[in-house]
Amino acid sequence: xxxxxxxxxxxxxxxxxxxxxxxxxxxxxxxxxxxxxxxxxxxxxxxxxxxxxxxxxxxxxxxxxxxxxxxxxxxxxxxxxxxxxxxxxxxxxxxxxxxxxxxxxxxxxxxxxxxxxxxxxxxxxxxxxxxxxxxxxxxxxxxxxxxxxxxxxxxxxxxxxxxxxxxxxxxxxxxxxxxxxxxxxxxxxxxxxxxxxxxxxxxxxxxxxxxxxxxxxxxxxxxxxxxxx
Length: 229
Ligand SMILES: *Cc1c(COP(=O)(O)O)cnc(C)c1O
Hints:
CATH class: Alpha Beta
CATH topology: TIM Barrel
Number of strands: 8
Order of helices and strands: HEHEHEHEHEHEHEHEH
Radius of gyration: 17 Å
CATH architecture: Alpha-Beta Barrel
Bound molecules: pyridoxal-5'-phosphate
Number of helices: 9
């Protein structure tokens, strides 16, 4: 089995290739290592291989890991679903929050962040229109973005999506193009958004070709997640 360092090297090479294959600009891409269900020691191993940004889905698990790794200069991103009673703690423990899809959540994160630098957030869009999925519907996105932009302790950076899983690159690509189009629409309305958080282990290269600026990669770095979680 390849090591975490070897996986990271391969992924970085792939990322650079995909940036070069982009039609549009060659804007840099942040590799976010998704460490949910992985141990602190594995995070440490990835950090030793040069990885500094990590994404977590579960608050308590993340807080435990942060305590065990507080000697490292890690930038922590919260990428899981956000319960409103957890907003205070999320705002205090993370630099970025990717899954904001309601004004109420944004307001609560904003209020909890008053004494720190602004929280970097992405609005999660339900791009495949699945009933069960979290994320704001594309039709409601413009209004939500306008309201969130008014909050002083939040910096709206862009959009995030978790598209319906598919191995079909044509479908993958069409979802990413939809996301890029939504971002462009918001910027035409005067927003200054620079972030598209799309792409995971099985589709990050396609995502980058279509404009991803953050890819959230878990299993391609750490291997399959331990099944019991
Ligand atoms: C788990 C997770 C990922 C990483 O998924 P992989 O397929 O392991 O790369 C990315 N984003 C979110 C929101 C996740 O929950």
